[in-house]
Structure formats: C-alpha cells, structure tokens
Amino acid sequence: MWQAGESVLLMSWIVWVMTSVVLHELGHGYAALAEGDPTPRDSGHITLNPIVHMGWFSIVAFLIMGIAWGLMPVNPSRFRNGRKGWAFVAAAGPAVNLALSAVCIVACAVAIRYGPQNEPLATNLRLFLVTGAWLNLYLMLFNLMPVPPLDGSIILAGFSNGAMRFFSKPGVQQFGLLALFIAVFSTNLSSAVVDSIQTWSVHAVAAVVSWLPAVSVAS
Predict the structure, then answer these.
(1) Contact predicate 51/81, CB 8 Å
(2) How far does Cα 115 stand from its chain's mean position?
(3) φ/ψ bin of 169: left (φ > 0), alpha (ψ from -120 to 50), beta (otherwise)
(4) Residue 218: inside a domain, yes or no?
(5) Could you tell me if residue 217 is inside a domain?
(6) Residue 4's pLDDT is what?
C-alpha cells in the first residue's frame, strides 16, 4: 500500500487508522469513567489528540511499518463491578470499532445509491468509506483475540477464573507479545485475513445498497 502511489488509498488508511485508534481508546476511557474510575480524565486522555493516545513511537512505527497502537490508562481497582467491570471496559474498545465499521458500511451504501456520481469524487468517497469499514472490522477482530495484552484476553479473564490465572502468568504475557508479532508480520496469514474482511465488507455494502429504495428520476 505504501508503494502503490495511490494517494487516496494512502490518505484513507492514515485517517482511518489514527481515527480508529483514538476512538477505540476513548471507548475504553469512557467505559472506565462509567465504572467509577477517573484515571482516564485525570491523566488527560479524554481527548481526540492522537499523540496523547498513540505516542510518538506508535506514530513513527505506523508511518514506517504501517502498524499502530494506543493506550488508555485505567485503574481496575476502582471499577465498581470488579472483574466484570474490567471486561466491560475492555469490550468497549472493540465495540467502538464495530460501530464505526457499521456506520461506514451504511454511509458507503448511501453514497452509492444517493451520493455524487461524478468521477473521481464518487470512487474516492466509496474507497474512503470501504477502507473505514474493513479496517475497523479488522481492528475489532484483532483486539478480541484472547491473547494478552489484547482486549479479548481481559474479557475472557473477566468471566473465567482459570483464564485469569493463566493470563496473569509472566510467561504467558511474553508469549502473547511474541504471538502478536508473528500474527502481524506473517504476510500470508495477515493477507488472507485482510482479504476476507475486505470481501465481506464489500458484500455488506452491496447488501445495504439492495435494501435502499432507488431514486426515481422525473422525466
């Protein structure tokens, strides 16, 4: 993607990665506030500033390697509902990505059915929205993997004592980081997953388009 020379695709990727990471982390932050933990607000992380959530190291890694991450400081000991509250806070991030993906799918369908038809605006707008759709779906699924330190491991630990004990072991934490590294940099695996998600997103857009009434043109 970085070498393709497709400026619209590149800009769509940059905008959506940074926006999705920021909103994902804000999902965690607002969920933590709802659980009674003021840490996100006290630490200055209730903001749309990507530098606050991602940090310069993540931003540089994104610009060089195309990968990025964020961080939302929370204090689980302050959660009203204990482990269940921790699971709720962890699930809030992927839930935001799912919502963003759904919004992009519907918006893209609306743009196809009722939006501008002149080129290159029409194609560029659809590309931007489809990129947001599949990227957020990918981020949701990736973060739901039950591998520490991803959200999926925290959600599972919130409902399983065995999982909590297992994920708390230092060796498991280190193995999780190694597994994530392999998953991210395994070209064949990543490409296959991304291709499947992109295909599903396009089909989802097409399905929504088929549900929208066509515009009648007066003769």
Answers:
(1) no
(2) 26
(3) beta
(4) no
(5) no
(6) 41
Angle at 107 (CA atoms; ends 126, 216), nearest 5 degrees: 90
Distance separating alpha carbons of residues 76 and 93, to the nearest angstrom = 16
Average pLDDT rounded to a whole number, residues 101-114: 96
- Separation of alpha carbons 67 and 44, rounded Å: 24
Nearest alpha carbon to residue 149 among 81, 93, 65, 77 = 93
195 has pLDDT over 50:
yes
Instruction: State mean pLDDT over 61-88.
Output: 92
Domain that holds residue 161: 7-211
Domain count, the chain: 1
* Alpha carbon separation from 49 to 25, 73, 91, 171 (Å, rounded): 11, 15, 22, 34
- What pLDDT is recorded for position 1? 41
pTM: 0.90
pLDDT at residue 219 greater than cutoff 60: no
Is 2 part of a structural domain of the chain? no
Q: Is residue 1 part of a domain?
A: no
